[in-house]
């Protein structure tokens, strides 16, 4: 059983587990399946806007797919969420990626 199959199997019993959904999205990205990864990241952040790690990966995915404006929006949302969570490390990563894209 490959990792995607394993993660999908785990998600059958806990379909809203953010860790598992995030891991599955990263596996999709490895395979070049940005469409499914995007849906997963968006669902995670819709359900749990405080799941800070997904903002960076979603914004990077959008950036890679030439969706600069959407990427900027997600970086900004992520910085706000990281600030609210008092997560300086994530805030710094998001800010650096945001500045690289904007400036």
Helical element count? 6
Per CATH, the superfamily is Tetratricopeptide repeat domain
**Rg to the nearest angstrom?**
14 Å
Using the coordinates above, name the CATH class.
Mainly Alpha
CATH-assigned fold name = Serine Threonine Protein Phosphatase 5, Tetratricopeptide repeat
Task: Give the CA-CA distance, first to last residue.
Answer: 44 Å
- Helix content percent band: over 70%
The CATH architecture comes to Alpha Horseshoe
- Give the averaged pLDDT, no decimals: 97
Q: What's the main sheet like? A: none
Give a description of the structure.
With 103 residues, this protein is mostly helical. It has a single domain, classed as Serine Threonine Protein Phosphatase 5, Tetratricopeptide repeat (Alpha Horseshoe), CATH 1.25.40.10. The protein has 6 helices and no strands. The model has no long low-confidence stretch (mean pLDDT 97).
How would you concisely characterize the structure shown here?
Helices cover 80% and strands 0% of the residues. It has helices at residues 3-13, 18-30, 34-47, 53-64, 68-84, 88-102. Helix 2 (18-30) runs antiparallel to helix 3.
Question: How would you summarize the topology of this molecule?
Answer:
Layout: H1 3-13, H2 18-30, H3 34-47, H4 53-64, H5 68-84, H6 88-102
